[in-house]
Amino acid sequence: MMGQRQHVLLLIFSAFLLFQTSNAHNITRLLAKHPSLSTFNHYLTLTHLAPEINRRTTITVLALDNAAMSSLLDKNPSIYTIKNILSLHVLLDYFGAKKLHQIRNGTALAATMFQATGVAPGVSGFVNITDFKGGKVGFGAEDNGGSLNSFFVKSVEELPYNISVIQISKALPSVVAEAPTPGPSELNITGIMSAHGCKVFADTLLANPEAMGTYEDNVNGGLTVFCPMDDPFKAFLPKYKNLTASKKASFLEFFGVPVYQSLSMLKSNNGLMNTLATDGASKFDFTVQNEGEEVTLKTRVNTAKITGTLIDEQPVAIYTIDKVLLPKELFKAALSPAPAPAPEEAADAPKGSKSKTKSKSKTKSKAAPTPDSDSPAESPDDDPADQVADDDNAAMCFGAERLAVVGLSFLLVFFLL
């Protein structure tokens, strides 16, 4: 009986370790063991693709050796174009060596990280994989006229069914991925917003030089924008016009975050987030929470949901949201808000650099407005159920997962004894 109990405890401990580490992988460390792939590894880090790969739970990396990378770099692409090209070499599915030779009907179409950025039109972000007779496997970008001109060389690293690193003979040619990509300072962020359903917000931002300058000052260092769609923002304009000039600038800056946040980062890094409007006593923050694939932004006043991705290219990401998110510093909650957290409880996230129209020495730092000071009388009351942010949901979910693991462990012991 004692031996059986020890065996059961060993099984439980092993299951717990598996639960803790099942999603852990580090592409940089995996490739570091293979000197012939050092240039490829270097550019995964330089383009910030490595952390994106590490956050994915199911991924296949089509690695290029140093010779293949040299041929790619001979064309002198910008670092942003290199990122697009290498993104095309990251498949959002698991393909180990065995699976490559067991593809149903001999051909598979795999989505890539390039497709996930939202900048690849149509099927240009997909890769065709074909298993030829005799064990030869070809790869080709779907926008390359169906040409399969790169081939499977060997399996480099496999952690089924989490990550697979496969070496292919040469880079996948793609007209879309290889197109010149502008640097972040050359991006027309308001143009991108205007062309994709956020024109009212973009026009309002352009009409406010102070807020627009703050956005421009943060583009190169990292910027994430959550732009409300046209219909909700148009309905909100009367309230916006009632704000003072300084509060209009703070309100518009509230929709920008001074760091790059991909959608996968937002899903995994829940919690308080500072904004471009955060300045000393004026917190102007919101809480990021996710439930499955849905990501929401919450203040003490209301809740907005991310509905789409306009651009996701390091260091800039722009997302659409379904409502006008309201900062508690400017608007009253429809329901009585919970007490504000103590200063030490707030996340010490990066703060945006203010535009040149603001005092760099902070001598004219914005004071935190009182709830009743010349702001609209109250926030919109169309969705009273979601007016108060529930900052404890993330912790409760995590605790529930831990309790579930412990509970299953005890049940296993009970049935086996």
TrEMBL record:
Biased composition (Low complexity): 366-378
Keyword flag Cell membrane: yes
Domain FAS1 per the UniProt entry, residue ranges: 24-172, 185-325
Signal peptide: 1-24
UniProt-recorded name of the protein: FAS1 domain-containing protein
InterPro entries hit by this protein: FAS1_dom_sf, FAS1_domain, Plant_FLA
Ranges annotated as biased composition (Basic residues): 353-365
Region of interest called Disordered, as start-end residue ranges on this chain: 338-390
Gene Ontology CC entries for this record: plasma membrane; side of membrane
SMART domains in alphabetical order: FAS1
Purpose: May be a cell surface adhesion protein.
Ubl conjugation among keywords: no
Biased segments, Acidic residues type: 379-390
Recorded superkingdom: Eukaryota
Compartments where found: Cell membrane
Pfam families linked: Fasciclin
Topology of this chain in the membrane: Lipid-anchor; GPI-anchor
